[in-house]
């Protein structure tokens, strides 16, 4: 969601700033003769503060787009502008084709996916891509295969803990890729730290999560002032993220020194650090990128594999198809489409005034692609709420290139697209192929043997789209072949 519920004190602070925002409001009204894109009716000064949805916002934005008959809609909040893009065409026209002016961001210390557009951001992205290029599949697939095999073997005896096993699988892959040190078999503290730190970072980067996003000068208000609750949360989050950035890196350095570390992103770049006056900055880049490798590979992949279980439970008939290679690829595409891990792409910020479709896009506006709306567009994907991998196959069972690939929307757009998308798809493909060759998912039964109907619900207001815990029974199909593998 874009706006968190405001406390009474937050509302007091908001009211006291209305006079200051009047200037912004009047300036924005006269900046361009062209109209803003359509959107919900706005209150004077406040704009749409009271309209921002608190749960499943991507669904609300898609509904507004249909009601207003416009794939681009405008919202405002106390002088800040938000542009929601609800079609693939609008997203590619602006975020891809005009990426030179649509690639800025709000800014965050180490989370380079939200850093302002500039050389620090470019250096971190370049550092990531040089190690995880498409040509270096062996770099990450070796780790993925090892931990997937461990997870499948553990499912033999602990199928009731499949969520915990998946967290350990993705966390193990992420740590081995980023840092190369060994993790505990259960309850690893670094995996827990990753989940808490990354979620706090994402929540902090949601536009409008606090009043300070729309009233920037509030960041100078001391945390003891009524209504400055964001200061206390931000302080706690900074402490958590500092620990996440420093502690795993320190553990990696210790493993390197003892000779117990496996090859990893950190070991690769640590060997290239030059002992110069610039080495401290270089090490900071390695820490930043290592942290995002760890966090991103862990959280988003967990969500995707959980959705795999949710889909198999909700649509068990798809397990009846022969799991050949094209079918697995089609299934992975449908997983990315049916429940996208990030229904709303991370915000871009436009650096200068622009015009699109006869509408004014103001400088400084947050521009957000609604991937969920695009991936549930009935024109591209008939019966969009059903899980149907066969939609991506031709009649003779080959992948159908005429159907738009969901990965074009599921991983963001333009220069802010997820640089590790191929790593995530590789992990999801490997898991789906390995699991379906060994297990099937069936509905749970109660103590009396009564089959319980599937009920899968999702978190309604998280940046990453996770299914809530649900019950299912993983019935082993070919246990002997797995145990002997």
TrEMBL record:
Pathway: Secondary metabolite biosynthesis. It comes from the Eukaryota. GO terms for molecular function: heme binding; iron ion binding; monooxygenase activity; oxidoreductase activity, acting on paired donors, with incorporation or reduction of molecular oxygen. Heme binds at residue 418. Belongs to the cytochrome P450 family. Keywords: Heme, Iron, Metal-binding, Monooxygenase, Oxidoreductase. Pfam families: p450. The keyword Ion transport does not apply. Its cofactor is heme. SUPFAM superfamilies: Cytochrome P450. This is Cytochrome P450. It comes from Gymnopilus junonius. InterPro entries: Cyt_P450, Cyt_P450_CS, Cyt_P450_E_grp-I, Cyt_P450_sf, Cytochrome_P450_fung. CDD domains: CYP64-like. Transmembrane segments: none annotated.
